Amino acid sequence: MSTHESGYMNKLNTVCNRQGWKLTKDEGVQSGPKHQPVWTGHVYVNGKPFGGQGRSIAAAREAAAMAALDYYRAYNPSVVPSDF
Predict the structure, then answer these.
(1) Is 80 a member of any domain?
(2) Deepest of 6, 24, 32, 56, by most Cβ within 10 A of its Cβ?
(3) Statement: the pTM of the whole predicted model exceeds 0.85
(4) What CA–CA distance (Å, rounded) separates 12 from 30?
């Protein structure tokens, strides 16, 4: 399963909606050669940035969303259930 298929952005969106938090994302930045691009993207939860990298902007955002979910799961487990 690729990172994009895991649905971290959907899960983060659900958590943010439940908590009343604002979720935004940036446009992303591409680096590396065109045949092997590396994208860096960020999501922001109430202005707090979380970054990630991937082979596409979607994969980079998924990685960033996973980082955000991991952060909030560690910070307050009741906000992000362990099975989520």
Answers:
(1) no
(2) 56
(3) yes
(4) 23
Q: Which amino acid is at 47?
A: G
63 in Cβ contact with 3 (< 8 Å): yes
Rounded to an integer, the average pLDDT of 6-24 is: 95
Average pLDDT, the chain: 92
Domain ranges, residue 14: 4-75
| Residues 67, 8: Cα–Cα separation, whole Å | 9
Residue 35: inside a domain? yes
Residue-wise over 12-41: b if at least 16 C-beta within 10 A, else e? beebbeeeebebebbebeeeeeeeeeebbb
> Is 81 contained in some domain?
no
pLDDT tens by residue, 54-72: 999 999 999 999 999 999 9
For residue 21, the domain's CATH number is 3.30.160.20
- Helix locations, 1-84, DSSP H: 8-19, 57-75
